[in-house]
Design a protein that fits this description.
With 260 residues, this protein is α/β, with parallel strands linked by helices. It contains 11 helices and 7 strands. α4 crosses α11 and α5 runs parallel beside α7. The longest helix is centred in the C-terminal third of the chain and has 21 residues. The radius of gyration is 18 Å and the shape is globular. It starts with a helix and ends with a helix.
Length: 260
Amino acid sequence: MSRWCSVAILAVILSLSTACASTNTAPQIPGAGFAPTSPGPSGVYVALGASDTVGIGSDDPLRESWPHDFYVTTVNRGTGYYNLGISGFTTADVNRSELRRALSLHPTIVTVFVGVNDIIQGVSTRDFAAEFDNLMQQLSASGSVVLVADIPVLHSLPAVQACLTGQVSSPSVICPSGQAQLADITTYAELDARVAAYNAIIKREVAAARATLVDLAALGDYVKAQPQLVSDDGFHPSDAGHRQIAQRFASAYAARIAGH
């Protein structure tokens, strides 16, 4: 790799706005992405979301985030790749920042994983529904294949438990809100009800937009069943967790392409 390209990659990390040309086997820069110099007939893949999309929790977010895994294992070779995820983003943030960039890239495939930060930051179901509806309508109008994850079970995550109980399982685990508790949720029942309400909105809007649902909620209480899927911070997916999410997106994409 040339010295110029190395400098360009550093600028991408700092600005979250510039991409360096590469092939579909090159490492991805969270918040920016890569694309071949000529996208070719296979089109462009764009990932929208927050820290899970960036790859936080993996040992190497550049290469082991779930969007990168999905890209290199599932998407056609020659397709451009842009990971526009930014940590901490709510659905409203995605609409304000990531969506315009995504549409300007004329994507043929879009993955969406939002909602968790909305819950953590206390976004009401009404406001979430409005923002998510806008996101789905605009992506639907783009003509892309749109794959959308719902929200998995959250109540068993150690970091979420730290928010609700004030007890931490290790020094690396903190409440993801940055405060001592979640914005407006104080019990497990309230959390489960909020997740269920969000997921009902996601499923309704995905169906209306004729997008494809990636059912992460179907994993059930995966933290208890497969604790290795959670990273040391007690909140984000581990390398194995990112691979599991990528596999779920890959299965949904295969079913969509097959017309199921």
